[in-house]
Amino acid sequence: MDIKNNSKIEAISKYLIEKLSAKEVAGDEFLARNKDIYEGEIEDIAAIYKIEDENIIQSLLSENEKSEIEIIMKHLNENNHIEEDCSLYMNEISTGKLIVIILESKDKINLSGFVMEGNGQKLFDYLMSCIDEPIEKVSNQLDELIEESRNFRPYGKYFN
Question: What does the DSSP assignment read for 31-84?
Fold first, then answer.
């Protein structure tokens, strides 16, 4: 990508659609699926995209993210259920089945920020390269569960 066009919403959208098979999502559809976010919380939305192709998502993951997803999948399979306090939406994100990207633009032309829900270090790095200002990466809501799963050791008379 040309450096001058690197931060243009139009060029980023084209990249997401053509290279990563992203699909644009209407704001209402996004808010309906994600009950934890309210319309007033997100300012300057230029576009919302979702990536649901698991092969593409796998190609965007770092080795660390792949191992984290394996731990989550193992935990969910062993317990044979979805955590009741987590929505299906968050489980799709945490298990590598969905990435949601919200592109933000103050001038409606250039990328000024983004929200990325889901794992995909390569996509995160790409989006970071498209903006000049540093953005703080916020951890996935289930990172604590992942860390606890790593340290969990069964105990009791049945696990000796």
Answer: HHH-TT--GGG--SEEEEEEE--HHHHHHH--HHHHHHHHHHHHHHHHHTS--T
| DSSP β-ladder status, 99-104 and 45-51 | antiparallel
In a domain, 58, yes or no: yes
Round to whole Å and give the CA distance between 51 and 122. 14
State the total domains in the chain.
Answer: 1
User: Three-state DSSP class for 143?
Assistant: helix
* Phi, psi at 103, each rounded to 5°: -90, 130
Model pTM? Answer: 0.72
Is 84 inside a domain boundary?
yes
Q: Which residue has the higher pLDDT, 80 or 54?
A: 54
Q: Let me know if residue 3 belongs to a domain.
A: no
Owning domain of residue 58 = 9-154
Q: What are the φ and ψ backbone dihedral angles of 106, each rounded to 5 degrees?
A: -75, -30
Whether 118 shows a pLDDT value over 50: the answer reads yes
